[in-house]
């Protein structure tokens, strides 16, 4: 029997303003789902946390309080405790009136947690609380901290770009707990994420006392690249350790804390030392909601490169466009807008713009493919061809019947749709780049042997050739070092073995754009096609992008017209609405 679509909301926690605080995806499960599916969805969303709610029958809930099973997943692993996603889940249940009580119990790996509606006029710090009808109060276990004598303080300081370290402890949750001289020092830290990965522990908490006039008791930040989250925006669960530490340092039990991430967030805390509990109070706002459409984990979904496609009926300013792309934190968000055409025109045209989590880009292949699939599959266009007006000129997308293509490698995982999409993109020539420091490039690739280095003629990307496809796969990118290299992004590529069915492999690292490694990058193949056509003396290629998700691109180089044709498929994983 087919499983029901899964309802979800994206909720910003510890804030009452959209695009602030910490986003979490909240999924309500009506049917059991296997572990692989749960992790795949969390990876697809790529938010700091995705949580799954499972209703528990009244007969099983002895207290009479509505009870739900609750699990939390980062993009790479399940975790035992998460504050902001619990707040998000509570708000989801309260605001959708899925519970009639003002209290909810959650059955978790960290025991039974409770969430209560908390009227604002009951708080001791109403001036500093966000406005609204109610706060949500979470009852969490205190997480003790202990001294750690074996840590290398110089290594910790290096990972924080030379910050002065006052003391280092460790939480019971296996996080390093690093105290800095002041809140200002916390805010000014420039984390070196590659170095933080080498430090012991799961993640690294940094904290420092705030000045009395700031209105806060302490600042903190949390870095956890090992969990797929370079910097967590607002981390409720860590305040279960921060409260333990600062209650002893400051001799008090009530705190107003500020997490000084770029998004920022305020947490009101009460330490119940006697019962070893911590009460966390905050608000939340729903930003988007929808349904997950895939019925089960399959070879098609959760592969390739995810893109968000937004069909705009009203004009939105650039700040909103960037805020949505940052909120949903996937490699590219595409905005499509219908363009009025003359009656003689038979080809539908749309404006298209692409945003990464940190900036707008001039060309994006996978998000154009996704936008085309969206328009074709929902019957929004009746034609087999679409034109897009973009910063890179007019781009076209065509439906290509399976029977018309001789290339079948990328159809080894058959999908429900019966067509490929062919994109007509501009060729991006490459040029020699003699001024580059080869040793710096090699260092950024963890010592990989570099054969040659080029740059794209738009001056934006480095194209680094390695000895083989195997060398491309084995590279361990050092993202902090890549940020120091010239160019917008770094493409690495190498020739594939003849028996592999591919012509070349590639990977793309673009931490400056907010994407450490892009899963499958259509647009860079407009430059790779130029390079490999000269090397291999051919114009048709089957290319493999060797990211963890992986993806196959079929491309044809039209050298005469300076165009590249990219062919691929897409599958819709979720659909919904942005509510703000």
From TrEMBL:
<dbReference type="GO" id="GO:0016853">
    <property type="term" value="F:isomerase activity"/>
</dbReference>
<keyword id="KW-0413">Isomerase</keyword>
<dbReference type="Pfam" id="PF02567">
    <property type="entry name" value="PhzC-PhzF"/>
</dbReference>
<comment type="similarity">
    <text>Belongs to the PhzF family.</text>
</comment>
<dbReference type="InterPro" id="IPR003719">
    <property type="entry name" value="Phenazine_PhzF-like"/>
</dbReference>
<protein>
    <submittedName>
        <fullName>OLC1v1007355C1</fullName>
    </submittedName>
</protein>
<dbReference type="GO" id="GO:0005737">
    <property type="term" value="C:cytoplasm"/>
</dbReference>
């Amino acid at each position: 029997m087919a499983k029901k679509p899964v309802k979800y909301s994206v909720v910003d926690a510890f804030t009452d303003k959209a695009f602030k605080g910490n986003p979490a995806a909240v999924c309500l499960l009506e049917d059991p789902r296997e572990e692989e599916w749960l992790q795949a969805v969390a990876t697809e969303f790529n938010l700091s946390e995705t949580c799954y709610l499972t209703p528990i029958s009244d007969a099983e809930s002895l207290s009479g309080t509505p009870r739900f099973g609750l699990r939390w997943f980062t993009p790479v692993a399940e975790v035992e405790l998460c504050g902001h996603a619990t707040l998000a889940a509570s708000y989801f249940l309260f605001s959708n009136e899925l519970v009639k009580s003002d209290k909810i119990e959650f059955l978790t790996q960290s025991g039974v947690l409770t969430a209560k509606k908390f009227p604002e006029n009951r708080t001791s710090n109403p001036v500093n609380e966000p406005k609204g009808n109610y706060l949500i109060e979470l009852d969490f276990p205190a997480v003790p901290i202990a001294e750690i004598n074996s840590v290398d303080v110089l290594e910790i300081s290096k990972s924080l770009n030379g910050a002065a370290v006052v003391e280092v402890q460790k939480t019971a949750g296996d996080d390093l707990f690093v105290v800095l001289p002041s809140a200002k020092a916390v805010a000014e830290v420039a984390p070196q994420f590659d170095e933080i990965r080498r430090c012991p522990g799961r993640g690294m908490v940094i904290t420092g006392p705030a000045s009395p006039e700031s209105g806060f008791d302490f600042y903190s930040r949390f870095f956890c690249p090992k969990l797929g989250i370079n910097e967590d925006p607002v981390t409720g669960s860590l305040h279960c350790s921060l409260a333990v530490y600062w209650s002893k340092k400051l001799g008090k039990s009530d705190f107003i804390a500020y997490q000084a991430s770029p998004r920022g967030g305020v947490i009101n805390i009460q330490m119940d030392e006697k019962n070893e509990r911590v009460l966390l109070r905050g608000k939340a706002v729903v930003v988007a909601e929808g349904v997950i459409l895939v019925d089960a984990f399959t070879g098609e979904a959760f592969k390739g490169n995810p893109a968000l496609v937004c069909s705009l009926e009203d004009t939105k300013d650039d700040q909103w466009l960037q805020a949505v792309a940052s909120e949903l934190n996937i490699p590219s968000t595409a905005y499509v807008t219908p363009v009025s055409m003359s009656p003689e025109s038979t080809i539908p045209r749309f404006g298209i713009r692409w945003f990464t989590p940190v900036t707008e880009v001039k060309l994006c292949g996978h998000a154009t493919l996704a936008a085309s699939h969206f328009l074709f599959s929902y019957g929004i266009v009746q034609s087999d061809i679409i034109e897009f007006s973009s910063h890179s000129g007019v781009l076209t997308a065509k439906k290509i019947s399976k029977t018309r293509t001789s290339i079948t490698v990328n159809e080894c995982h058959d999908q429900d749709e019966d067509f490929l999409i062919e994109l007509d993109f501009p060729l991006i020539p490459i040029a020699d780049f003699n001024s580059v420091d080869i040793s710096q490039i090699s260092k950024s690739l963890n010592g990989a042997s570099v054969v040659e280095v080029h740059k794209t003629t738009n001056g934006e990307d480095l194209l680094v050739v390695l000895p083989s496809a195997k060398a491309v796969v084995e590279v361990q990118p050092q993202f902090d070092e890549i940020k120091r290299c010239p160019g917008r992004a770094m493409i690495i590529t190498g020739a594939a073995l003849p028996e592999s069915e591919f012509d070349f492999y590639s990977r793309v690292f673009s931490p400056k754009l907010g994407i450490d490694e892009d899963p499958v990058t259509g647009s860079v193949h407009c430059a790779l096609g130029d390079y490999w056509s000269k090397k291999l003396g051919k114009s048709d290629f089957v290319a493999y992008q060797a990211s963890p998700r992986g993806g196959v691109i079929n491309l044809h180089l039209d050298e005469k017209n300076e165009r590249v044709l990219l062919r691929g498929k897409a599958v819709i994983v979720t659909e919904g609405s942005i509510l703000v």
